[in-house]
Design goal:
This is Gem nuclear organelle associated protein 5. A hairpin with a 6-residue loop joins strand 52 (639-644) and strand 53. By secondary structure, the chain is α+β, with helices and mostly antiparallel strands. Helix 12 (938-947) runs antiparallel to helix 13 (951-961), helix 14 runs antiparallel to helix 15 (986-995) and helix 18 packs parallel to helix 20 (1237-1254). The strands form 18 sheets. The chain has a 5-stranded antiparallel beta sheet with strand order 18-20-21-22-19, with no helix packed on it.
Length: 1261
């Protein structure tokens, strides 16, 4: 395939792709831009575009060359369309493809160690291995997380590194179906880039600097205990969004070195960065690259577009240096890096960036050797400077203006970019005819401004805006009122702009802040025109400034003489909107052709008219020209641009939507050359002012081409039918091959870059049709993605009158006569809006309109469209009737309800109530309740939710609106609890009962489960609610269950909790002072500092009575607690395993060590003895023989329990003895106390359980 172009500014490389560019060993660089791969021939001096690889339907996400010698022309590309394509870069042809992915492909790499292995990964974490020679395909799924990058090892085809969005890196073995060898952890954010070392660098532990981690940015931070790997794995470098670079040993899976990005002061004035303080993290892309033959040097990107070279083997604190100097650096973040060693030995680094530039660096000098500008949007305007020869201005959808010195010998792509003050697409450009560097521009949002190309000042912006897109800008002679005044008071020329709203404005370039004037007023005043002028779509001043041609949306071209704009003639040739006009070039040969005017429209034809006679001898009235001098009709799409050659007589270049540019010989009326190098619609064209064999074109494919007509093989555009405008509205356009999706409307996201040069902007999707209004054949910029299908036409509200407009021509003319008769002869008896004159009610008075509405309503009802009847009644002002109609048919809606208040309060309330009934029938109860609230029907709304068993919502509403003690709220809780209990949701039901204040019911519900936790909770709930009887009953059930499961401690704890709670609630006849809290025997309740009487089981089950002397400390039986806090000299040993009183003065019989019982008197706490009588337990007399530890019976008296009313002698704290009477016991309970039956049951159960526990054999372990 031959090269048809000379120089090309390509589309910008895609953003946010880990590996979207690569370079082979012969110096051919490929990069993905939109859905195309562009190929560059790279040298140390410059580069040239070889061509492109087109075939993907969506954005290219990855690109990689084959690294094997003899096959380096092979390359692979992946796309968001789910395909991987294989190409021959030399012939630029597709070889094969595969679709092994279900998700979006995010990374691709052709293995450097195997000439046939190509690995790709998608956003679902699936990795696909494809063998190019056999076509075999396998996949594995090592980690169910989003994959971000991958890299094949150059040392072994089996090794593959995978980087994930969560910061994880996996080393897997491809030969073992993705078996994970190492999991590298250390990064905290997504892995942007992975790069293998070309060989094993000297990164031993001793070589790494020993700076403490995190001490200073830019230092190398060695990991503790790092060792030199052994084997063929080598090293792996990873760049992450966490602003660090890590070097790993792939044999050991351990980190070797950590590099933290240095904070560099932003240079170049671009947007990006934020430094190490975190401000740049959101816009950071950390790309890493390990150059060939440089194992100890690593390249990385930085915050603001700088490139950093890390010396991994250097000593000292600073391990890095920055590439370039001054403004050589990128001004925004860098996405991809690739290197190549030329045959001359020079090693070059190629980088792509968000600043839309591709730079080439010499790694020996670390200097930038050349820069290639790229475009981020469609090119809509080209303009050569008439003063600075060869200076070409180009503007497009990426919101930037570029001035390109096309004649530069040192740098063939020497450009300067202007973006300040621009917030929209550039749709028109024109240089000042005499002032050097003054460039006027127009934008898609209707702004007009002037740039000084030789300064860095922001542009001047006109205070007068167009309402729509600027179609055309041109300099011309001043017209009134700017033409009034002397030579020093008026401008030498004015700036004219034509906008999409159809107006042409004249701006004063000396003061753009002043208001611009519309030339339509001057045209009407000069020519006495009363009617409204047709909207203008383009204009062109004759080079000598004497005549201006104005194109209109109706296809006509009007010619006016300056300065009064007297109309000279009107060209009625086109039948569609005029897109472009161009007068013959003033420098072209044969000046007698200076009155040739070329015009192009959406009819795909170019007409050339010779207006000499009309301009030199104008007729009165102005002549109407309907015959063309030449008709050029080979294009198959809309004409978008024209350019006369300044070097040839009557040679014209045209561009079209058919993706081609055509050169014509106008005198012969035939085509000479057709250029087909663009991949999309061509939007603008300029003939070179210095080279007769060079033409420049800009297109929707985001490129500008320089091409020579003499090298083209085609003479005419490809055959095809004329484009149908309906396809443009749908976003489909027929071209040379078939239907083409316009970029930005292809299926799926295409991720186009067009919005550039402004802060905060991301990669915007380009709307390719943003220059002109839809009627002109270009879709406005506000139109975004739409379905690629024909839209259904909306039903007419007035179908009868609409249908009558499609009658015969005679009937329509008769309607016009009838309407004029009634309008100008009111006395004529003609009835409108009925019968054959139905549709005339739209053009007459209100009664006729209402009559027409009535017939239309009947037609709607007959056709089954009652909604249209409602709207017609609303339009006629009958709000109540419209609402009544909608209510009867059950078709009320939110829109009608919003209109209801216009009919009055009564109508509104009734409509809301009707709408609530309708919503209930439609099971929209929540919405119905909300509408009841709008008319202050709170209780009705709550009852509505309650009646439909929406208890939760009803309670929420009641809680929010009603008082806390409202009976309605309690009833809701009880109702919900009953429903929950019925469904088995016992815990939720208990909560409802508790909220309703029904603690008894809550405890009963919880106890239904009968398990220990539920019973324990139920007992607690009952106790807290004051239901003591129920609490004791449930506690006994719980203790019984725990005892049955041998959980003795749990059973005792349950009974103890209830006993303590019950004892606290029993009144006492005397308040007994306590001296100290004394712990009781393990697991049993005890008295605290109060003399008490308790039942003490003996070893034989018989209670005993003994007197305990207090003058001597007696050791207690093994394992039992002794008295605490009471002055005594001896603790009484009770029978083994029996509890005894602690700290309580008592009289008891103490068994002696010889087996003889002894009786001692126990003094009080102050040394005063007291005597008390011990009641017996279980009906047995209180004095009996108790076997001692030596088998000798003993006697003791046991004090009563705490909280039980008793009469006994209580020791006072002042040493004065007190005497009180201790009641006897009956059936194990104290006689004479005020105890309820529940206390009795609880006490007996407690004693029985305690006896049972202490009779168990002791564990000897």
């Amino acid at each position: 395939m031959g090269i048809m172009h000379e120089r090309v500014i390509p589309a910008s490389p895609n953003w946010y792709c880990g590996r979207c560019s690569d370079t082979n060993q012969r110096g051919v660089m490929g990069f993905g831009a939109r859905n195309t791969v562009y190929l560059l021939d790279v040298s140390a001096e410059s580069c040239s575009v070889l061509g492109d690889l087109s075939g993907h339907k969506e954005r290219v996400s990855g690109f990689s060359f084959c690294r094997q010698a003899g096959q380096d022309q092979l390359c692979a590309s992946s796309s968001d369309d789910g395909t991987v394509k294989f190409w021959d870069a030399d012939d630029r042809v597709l070889l094969k493809e595969h679709s092994g992915h279900q998700g979006t492909i995010v990374a691709l790499h052709w293995s450097p160690a195997d000439k046939n292995l190509v690995v790709s990964g998608d956003d679902k974490g699936v990795v696909v291995c494809y063998w190019f020679n056999t076509g075999d395909c396998s996949s594995f799924f090592p980690l169910p997380k989003a994959l971000f990058s991958l890299s094949c090892s150059p040392h072994s085809w089996k090794l593959l590194a995978l980087g994930y969005k969560q910061g994880i890196i996996l080393l897997v073995d491809v030969s073992k179906k993705g078996e994970v060898l190492h999991r590298l952890r250390g990064h905290e954010d997504e892995i942007h880039s992975l790069s293998w070392s070309p060989s094993t660098p000297a990164l031993e532990q001793g070589d790494a600097p020993q700076d403490p981690p995190g001490e200073e940015e830019g230092r190398v931070q060695p990991d503790a205990g790092s060792v030199r790997p052994v084997g063929s794995g080598g090293y792996l470098a990873s760049g992450s969004r966490d602003q660090t670079i890590r070097v790993w040993s792939t044999d050991t899976g351990r980190g070797i070195t950590t590099l933290k990005l240095p904070y560099l002061k932003k240079r170049g004035g671009g947007v990006g960065g934020g430094g190490g303080a975190g401000g740049g993290k959101d816009r950071l892309w950390l790309s890493v690259h390990w150059p060939d033959d440089r194992p100890s040097q690593l390249l990385s990107s930085c915050f603001s577009g700088e490139l950093v070279l890390w010396d991994l083997g250097a000593s000292g604190k600073q391990k890095w240096s920055v590439l370039g100097s001054g403004d050589q650096n990128h001004s925004r973040i860098v996405f991809n890096m690739s290197s190549v060693r030329l045959a001359s030995g020079r090693q070059l680094l190629l980088t792509t960036s968000m600043d839309r530039e591709i730079k080439c660096w010499d790694l020996a000098s670390l200097e930038c050797v050349w820069t290639l500008p790229t475009l981020g949007g469609s090119v809509y305007a080209l303009s050569f400077s008439p003063v600075a020869t060869g200076l070409l201005a180009l503007g497009g959808a990426d919101q930037m203006i570029r001035s390109w010195d096309t004649l530069s010998l040192q740098n063939p792509y020497l450009t300067k970019t202007f973006w300040q003050g621009i917030r929209s697409k550039i749709t028109a450009l024109v240089w000042h005819p005499s002032r050097e560097g003054s460039l006027a521009f127009g934008t898609d949002d209707g702004k007009v401004g002037i740039y000084d190309a030789f300064s860095n000042k922001p542009p001047q912006i006109s205070s007068s805006y167009h309402h729509k897109t600027i179609y055309r800008l041109a300099w011309g002679p001043p017209l009134p009122p700017l033409s009034f005044g002397g030579a020093g008071e008026r401008p030498s020329c004015s700036l004219y702009s034509c906008g999409g709203e159809g107006a042409i404005l004249q701006h004063d370039p000396r003061s753009l802040a002043s208001d611009a004037c519309n030339i339509d007023k001057l045209i009407r005043d000069t020519n006495g025109i009363k009617h409204k002028l047709s909207p203008h779509s383009d204009f062109s001043w004759k080079p000598d400034g004497t005549v201006v041609a104005v194109g209109n949306e109706d296809g006509s071209v009007d010619v006016y003489a300056a300065p009064a704009l007297k109309q000279l003639c009107s060209v009625q040739q086109h039948n569609k909107i005029i897109n472009t006009l161009q007068w013959y070039h003033p420098l072209a040969p044969q000046p007698e052709l200076q009155y040739l005017l070329a015009s192009g429209s959406s009819s795909a034809k170019v007409y050339v008219h010779d207006l000499r006679s009309a301009c030199e001898a104008p007729a009165d009235p102005p002549a109407v020209i309907s015959e063309a001098f030449r008709t050029l009709g080979a294009h198959t799409g809309k004409i978008t641009g024209l350019s006369w050659s300044p070097h040839h007589p009557a040679r014209l270049a045209t561009v079209s939507y058919d993706h081609t540019a055509q050169v014509w010989d106008v005198l012969k009326g035939e085509g000479l050359v057709n250029y087909r190098g663009h991949g999309n619609r061509v939007m603008c064209v300029e003939w070179s002012p210095v080279d007769p064999d060079v033409v420049w074109t800009g297109a929707d494919d985001f490129t500008v081409h320089e091409w020579k007509p003499s090298k083209q093989e085609f003479t005419a555009p490809p055959k095809g039918e004329e484009q149908d405008y309906s396809l443009v509205l749908l976003g489909l356009e027929p071209g040379p091959i078939g239907l083409h999706y316009p970029v930005g409307l292809q299926p799926g996201p295409i991720g186009l870059q067009e919005a550039g040069g402004t802060e905060g902007e991301e990669q915007a999707e380009e709307d390719q049709h943003g220059c002109r209004r839809a009627a002109r054949g270009r879709v406005p910029s506000c139109w975004r993605e739409r379905k690629l299908m024909k839209r259904k036409k909306a039903r007419s509200m007035l179908p009868l009158s609409t249908a009558m407009d499609h009658r015969s021509k005679e009937d329509l003319l008769e309607d016009c006569v009838t309407l004029a008769t009634i309008t100008h002869s009111p006395g004529e008896p003609v009835t409108l809006a009925t019968g054959p004159h139905l549709q005339l009610g739209l053009f007459s008075d209100r009664p006729a309109l209402h009559s027409m509405f009535q017939e239309e309503e009947e037609a709607h009802l007959a056709a089954g469209h009652p909604d249209s009847v409602v709207y017609l009644r609303l339009w006629s002002g009958d709000v109540e009737g419209a609402l009544r109609t909608a209510t009867e048919r059950g078709e009320l809606n939110d829109h009608l309800l919003a209109i209801a208040p216009t009919g009055g309060y009564r109508v509104w309330v009734r409509t809301v109530q009707d709408y609530v009934k309708q919503l209930c029938l439609q099971d929209q109860h929540l919405k119905a309740a909300s509408f009841l609230l709008s008319i202050n029907k709170l209780h009705e709304a709550i009852e509505l939710l309650h009646s439909h068993k929406m208890y939760r919502e009803a309670i929420a509403l009641a809680r929010a609106r009603l008082p806390d003690q409202d009976v309605v709220l309690k009833g809701l809780y009880v109702s919900w609890a009953a429903a929950l209990e019925k469904d088995g949701h016992l815990s939720a039901a208990a909560k409802c009962y508790v909220a309703a204040g029904a603690g008894f019911d809550a405890a009963k519900v919880v106890s239904k489960k009968s398990d220990a936790p539920s019973l324990r909770a139920a007992a607690t709930i009952a106790r807290l609610a004051g239901e003591s009887q129920l609490a004791h009953t449930i506690a006994l059930r719980c203790a019984k269950g725990l005892a049955a499961s041998l959980d003795w401690v749990g059973a005792q704890q349950v009974l103890k909790a209830q006993e303590v709670s019950s004892s606290k609630g029993v009144p006492s006849t005397q308040e007994v002072p306590s001296t100290q809290e004394v712990p009781s025997p393990e697991g049993l309740p005890h008295t605290n500092g109060v003399p008490s009487t308790q039942e003490v089981p003996s070893t034989e089950g018989v209670p005993s009575t003994q007197e305990v002397p207090s003058t001597q400390e007696v050791p207690s039986p093994e394992g039992l607690p002794h008295t605490n806090g009471v002055p005594s000299t001896q603790e009484v040993p009770s029978p083994e395993g029996l509890p005894h009183t602690n700290g309580v003065p008592s009289t008891q019989e103490v068994p002696s060590t010889k087996g003889v019982p002894s009786t001692q008197e126990v003094p009080s706490t102050e040394g005063v003895p007291s005597t008390q009588e011990v009641p017996s337990t279980e009906g047995v007399p209180s004095t009996q023989d108790v076997p001692s530890t030596e088998g000798v019976p003993s006697k003791q008296e046991v004090p009563s329990t705490e909280g039980v009313p008793s009469t006994q002698e209580v020791p006072s704290t002042e040493g004065v003895p007190s005497t009180q009477e201790v009641p006897t016991t009956q059936d194990g309970m104290l006689v004479g106390t005020h105890l309820t039956s529940s206390h009795i049951v609880l006490y007996r159960s407690y004693n029985l359980l305690s006896s049972y526990i202490f009779q168990m054999p002791r564990c000897t372990c």
